[in-house]
Amino acid sequence: MNARYYAPKGLCIIALLIVSYGCSKKVEEKRVDAFQNGAQVVVDTEFDFVYALDQAELVGDYINPDWVTMPDPDFGEKTYWGIFEHAPAQIHFKDVYVGENAELDFQIGILPGAWQNEGDGVRFEIIATLPDGNDIQCFSRYIDPKKNEDERRWIPQKVALPQISNAAVTFSFVTHPGENAFSNNKDSDWAIWGSPVLRSSGRKTPYQKSTETNVILVTIDTCRADYLGCYGNDWIDTPNLDRLAEEGVLFENLFAASSTTSPSHVSILTSMQPNQHGVINNGYPFPKALPRLPQFFVENGCKTGAVVSVYHLNDAYYGFGKWFDWFNNLALKWTEKGANLFSSTRGGRASVSAAIDWLEQVHNNSFFLWLHVYDPHAPYFAEGDLHKKYYTGDPKNPAHHSMDGAVYQKSKSPESLAWIDSFKDLEYFRREYGAEITFVDSQIGRLLGALERLDLHENTLLVITADHGENVGEHDIYFDHWMLHNTDIHVPLIFWLPKSLPQGKRIAADVSHIDIAPTILDVIGDRKNPVADEIFDGISLKPLWENEQQAAPNRILTSNGLLYTEMAGWNDRFKVIWELRDAPYHDRAGLLMDRVWIFDRLNDPGEINPIACFYWGDESERSDFEKTLRREMMSIEGENRQERQLLRKMELIKERACQKTIPNESQLRQWAAQGAHGVKLDATRYADDPQFFPAIQAILEAMKAGVCTPSLEDRLKNIIDISVLENGQLDSAPIFDKTLQEIQRSLGYGNAAG
């Protein structure tokens, strides 16, 4: 325990220290036994050069990881994560272990923008420097797409390395501007190595099989549940996720805490809703003093590691790395070389390679690993041969008209929409999004393969979920996740632990992101951790799969919109979406202050036909508040005006929401009968049901409580000595950057009119 943060709370703290000592002792004994029993596992079977680029020695002015699309004769185009290397340049990867039967697998190409420019092509070379200092040329090829149209594409390469075996060598990826080393025309020599990987038999290392339970938490960005085979999809291949569901426990109705990445991830790690922990959008840092899931593993003597794949989960800016021994995020070195961090992501192949590399290093220890992969997120370009896996024909054919009415965010620049504008068929995007999910499934397969190779598969709890879903034209939202419909928040949840969890168990109960951390601790035997018991708002889901007679929890769950824009709440029959304030998204999808929508979950799971729509409260009061907002916004002047306007607006919106009075049944009946936007409650189906209006009142009450949360100081006062905290350690205030300002504009923030 860190005494600086935790006040002496008697036996509570003593108990935690005893647990920590016991686990640490077991780990040390395990390491000693590892070299006594002769057991071995295989490591270093794969080396991912894109992942390793962060640690490589770079010689040249323009070298960086990149995501590149080029034409392809069979698919129209292909995309790979790769390494950009403007010739002349060299990249030296040192101490790369090469086992037997080694093979290099990669693509080469020159970026399309150079094909019509001056230049004389590029020679690609790979040189291996052996331990004795001798060099072996493994690969050499000259291409010039300007002269040879057949080279205007990705060119696949497979290179066997029979001359290298069971040795640690240095691989040098070299590009020359022209056909030979004497060429000096450097114009437009934009060379790219696509997804370069070394595979071999690897090497053996001693280990001791642990009886302790390890944990890997995988969060897939932007992954809807209904796009997985195990959730009923009949055209998307997800064999590895389906296998996990068949061998484990699947929750059919997991709903995200938010439709936004950072808020949802903090909720997963803290078992608190966004409005409680304060991370209410991307660009808000993780509150420093807030206990989180990896902390409990550190205190129990376990190794902790994390891999993230998008900038707003980076530790340096947003504080997600606390309590992780190893936190692998997007390297800041690329921003120093001109890359834009705030649009930076990393492909799933490199992220999974990072995770496997760490597992190979810590396999003799008990551990907790969080792995985040980003690939299903827009823009949708499935890597390699998976591109257009589920789509035939030409999506740019003007005979298609399904994209004619599509409307995107107003604030987006033309450049950021270039991946959309030339396409005419909406079905193409749905299918390519599905192909992205198939790619992620393949990477889950790589992770499973590594667990089996390291003999960790029988004692590692694997938890699969997603931060939020995606709209691919549903609800008039295209290629984004912003509102609180099921398309935004219904995501997968699978628990897999062979020989310990039941196989093929499906749980229909509604559950939440905030239930994941309590369940993990319960499975590993730390259910009664006093700190977790004090702060976690979720429940353990373990009883739901242990006891066939266990009743589903009778809860009203909620999900928070970003920046206090809206709330969603639901019971087992009805879902209510409450719009807290005006927030224009685009021409046909936006929020209006006090508007309430009610959906029948049983008869309309797609939330297409609301059964009621009304405005909560008095119209004159709403008009007066809007005038107050405008006055407040006009009164804010000076430096950082937009940022301070947003903060003040959110403060006023939250205060007003907390003053709301729950309508009585008579008011609800009147509002619902009057209706709004052409939607009136069907009296014969719902208004005469004596349970309907009380149910809606209870949901409204739960949503109001979800906005009006107690302060973190009050929540944590029993376990944290507030007097020793530095300013801001309990708060999350936005880090304003280009991305957040873009969100501000798209939601109508930052102007005098409010």
What shape does the CA trace take? globular
Number of strand segments: 31
Number of helices: 22
Query: What is the CATH C-level name of the largest domain?
Result: Alpha Beta
- Helical content stands at 25-40%
Compute the average pLDDT: 88
Terminal CA distance reads 46 Å
Q: Radius of gyration from the CA trace?
A: 27 Å
Class by SSE composition = alpha+beta
CATH topology of the largest domain: Alkaline Phosphatase, subunit A
Note the beta-strand portion: 15-25%
The major beta sheet can be summarized as: 9 strands, mixed
- Assembly state: single chain
Low-confidence stretches: 1-36, 749-754
Name the CATH superfamily classification of the largest domain. Answer: Alkaline Phosphatase, subunit A
CATH architectural label of the largest domain? 3-Layer(aba) Sandwich
Domain unit count: 4
In brief, what are we looking at here?
The chain contains 22 helices and 31 strands. Helix 9 packs parallel to helix 11.
Kindly describe this structure.
By secondary structure, this protein is α+β, with helices and mostly antiparallel strands. It folds into four domains: 11-41, no CATH class; 46-201, NPCBM/NEW2 domain (Jelly Rolls, Sandwich), CATH 2.60.120.1060; 214-557, Alkaline Phosphatase, subunit A, CATH 3.40.720.10; 560-746, no CATH class. The protein contains 22 helices and 31 strands. It is globular and about 85 Å long. The chain starts with 10 loop residues before the first helix and ends in an 8-residue tail after the last helix.
